[in-house]
Structures are given as structure tokens and as C-alpha cells.
Design goal:
The protein has 349 residues and is an alpha/beta fold. The protein contains 9 helices and 20 strands. The strands form 5 sheets. Strands 1, 4, 5, 6, 7 and 10 form a 6-stranded parallel beta sheet that branches.
Length: 349
């Protein structure tokens, strides 16, 4: 413990040289499904909170360039993203963003845009937004889950098919908007280690849906974003997320796996690469199970033996610890799992 505290005193000089939070939204509307929506009035409160508390909203490209060049950004920097190209992003969200001159990104599905639904942005609208500085990025051709391999196909065959889809979507976005960033948001936030390698092999960076702040050492195949729609849209929740620090935690070997049948995985281990917290103040919660007991193996590795079987569906383990050098701020790391039913069937999308 003495070593950890002494290391923290040295580390505090540069710990906050880079901490960026990415917010994830979908609908900005009072009439769309609550689980993917934030009301226009609440969204306005979010944006005003950023302005009132001196957060610097930056473009996603600025964040990615900083990671690529290992160049620090302002400590209180925020990136705003939307998934799925809903029309209300333009009609309800953009006017609020424009009041503050905030840049933002929309991850789109070209196959859905081309259906010309009245609920989605058109190519013409997306092109105007792109010309106005909005980043238009790749969310897959048709919002299909990447981890749900059809019967009769191998992982290699499935990824080969999805390579065509991924590159076709990127090509269409480039043709229609003039942009090609090779940024990809996982549909439903679902991925596994093989898909992470596939993303890297195709020269993309990928964004997930588990929580956490972004740092210079963040894995660019699973860049975290904080969901900011209901039920996580209240200002106290937003405040905690905006003040999060990137928790440098490594997940290695079998602990990288994300897909299990219920009852198949019983524990997980993490390796910590930061010393600016007291181990006894580390707390980890698993969705549906609550707070978990932590067992340390030395100063760097800790293990969680689940208190019960991980529930079916999309499950998260959120680990947080208060910073020693930055009182009031918390390191935040999230590990997702996608747990099938005991008979091997997938849970509903």
C-alpha cells in the first residue's frame, strides 16, 4: 500500500493530461422509445451544463488524432455522438447544438438511409450536415449484430461477408457525403475478440457501448461511450460521467471473451496499470447482480468471482475508484458480456 500511495504522488503530475468523455445519444424526442431517447428539453440542459461548467466539446476526429499522435487534449474535453441517423437529430438536436457551436458525429446505416423512411435522415440532409462540419461515420450497412453468426457459417466466413458490408457502407458514405473516417460503431454494442482483430485488420477504429472515459492508451477497437439517454439522462448522472477518468485496465487471455452461455463464466480477472487510487476503494458492480467482492493478487491484478450466474442478455461490469490526486473524480472501467440462454439460444435484440 505504501508503494501505491508514493507512486500516486508522482503520477498526479500528469494523470489528467488526457481525459475525454464520449456521450452517446440516439433520439432527441418526446415521442420515441424511452430507452433510446432524450427529450429536447433535457438535451438542452445537457448542452447548457457543458457550457456552464467549462467543458470543451471537440470533434471526434480531434480525439482520434490525439490518440494516434499521443498528443494530449484539454482535460475536460467531451465528444458528442448519435447512433442511427434519426430525423429528430436534425430537427430537435442540431438547433440546440448550434446554439453552442458544438461539433458532433452521427453513425449511420447506409442501407437504412436508402429506404427513404420519414423517420430517418435522407442523403441530401446528411450531405448538408456533412458540409456544415458534422462527421458522418459507419454503423454498418443495415444495423446487423456482428456476433450472431448464422447457422452453417464459420466465424471466418461470417467476417469475410461482413468485410464486404463494412467496406461497401464506407464507400457509400464517402460517395454520398464526401467523408470517409473509417470510424465504426458496433450495432447493439456487441463484439468479441475476433471482431476486434477484424476491425484492426481492416484499418478501422471502433466504438462500443460500455461506459468509461477515453485516454491515450485506450484500446481503439473498443472505445467506450457513456449512454446519455433515458434512464441515464439526469444531470447528476451526467455530471459523474463527465468527471470520469480513464481507468487503465488490461483484460487478457480468456478474460477478453465476451460471449458465454449462462453459467459458463464464473469469474473474471483484470490487470490495473494505474496507481492513483486506494485498492480498498475500488468497487465493481455487475448488472443484475449488484456489488461484487474483489480479490487482489498483489498490487496489479484483481479477480471477481460472480455472486451468481451472469444473467441472460447484455451484461456490464462497471468498476470505479476515486482518484487520489483529483478529489471528486473517479476512474471508470466497464467490461461487457453477451450471455446466451442455457440452451445456447440468443437473447432478443
Amino acid at each position: 500500500m505504501k508503494f501505491r500511495l508514493l507512486a500516486a504522488l508522482c503520477y498526479c503530475l500528469h494523470i489528467t493530461s488526457f481525459a475525454t468523455v464520449i456521450l452517446q445519444y440516439h433520439h432527441v424526442s418526446d415521442t420515441t422509445p424511452a430507452s433510446t431517447s432524450i427529450s429536447p428539453s433535457q438535451f438542452a440542459l445537457h448542452m447548457q451544463y457543458l457550457a456552464d461548467n467549462n467543458f470543451e466539446v471537440i470533434a471526434l476526429s480531434s480525439l482520434m488524432n490525439s490518440i494516434k499522435t499521443q498528443t494530449a487534449l484539454p482535460n475536460k474535453s467531451v465528444v458528442i455522438t448519435f447512433d442511427d441517423a434519426y430525423l429528430d437529430i436534425l430537427t430537435q438536436g442540431k438547433p440546440i447544438l448550434d446554439q453552442h457551436d458544438y461539433p458532433f458525429t452521427i453513425f449511420i446505416n447506409p442501407g437504412i438511409v436508402e429506404q427513404n423512411s420519414e423517420h430517418y435522415l435522407s442523403w441530401q440532409q446528411l450531405k448538408v450536415m456533412a458540409d456544415d462540419g458534422v462527421i458522418i461515420a459507419n454503423h454498418g450497412m443495415a444495423h446487423d449484430s456482428l456476433i450472431r453468426i448464422p447457422d452453417g457459417m464459420t466465424m471466418q466466413q461470417w467476417l469475410a461477408k461482413n468485410t464486404q458490408s463494412l467496406l461497401s457502407a464506407e464507400k457509400i458514405i464517402a460517395e454520398k457525403t464526401g467523408q470517409s473516417w473509417r470510424y465504426f460503431a458496433y450495432p447493439y454494442g456487441e463484439y468479441n475478440p475476433e471482431i476486434q482483430q477484424w476491425i484492426q485488420d481492416n484499418n478501422f477504429v471502433a466504438f462500443s457501448q460500455q461506459s468509461g472515459a477515453v485516454g491515450l492508451s485506450t484500446n481503439t477497437t473498443i472505445i467506450p461511450r457513456f449512454p446519455a439517454s433515458q434512464p441515464y439522462d439526469q444531470l447528476p448522472s451526467l455530471r459523474d460521467k463527465l468527471n470520469a477518468l480513464p481507468f487503465s485496465i488490461r483484460v487478457e487471455a480468456e478474460n477478453q471473451q465476451t460471449i458465454f452461455q449462462q453459467g459458463e463464466s464464473t469469474s473474471v480477472s483484470f490487470k490495473v496499470d494505474v496507481d492513483d487510487f486506494n485498492p480498498e476503494q475500488l468497487n465493481c458492480y455487475i448488472s443484475g447482480l449488484g456489488r461484487q467482492e474483489i480479490q487482489w493478487q498483489g498490487d496489479e491484478i484483481f479477480t471477481i468471482n460472480y455472486s451468481a450466474a451472469l444473467p441472460t442478455g447484455r451484461v456490464r461490469c462497471n468498476c470505479t475508484a476515486p482518484s487520489i490526486s483529483e478529489p471528486g473524480r473517479y476512474y471508470w472501467f466497464s467490461k461487457p458480456w453477451f450471455i446466451l440462454k442455457e440452451n445456447g439460444e440468443w437473447f432478443p435484440l
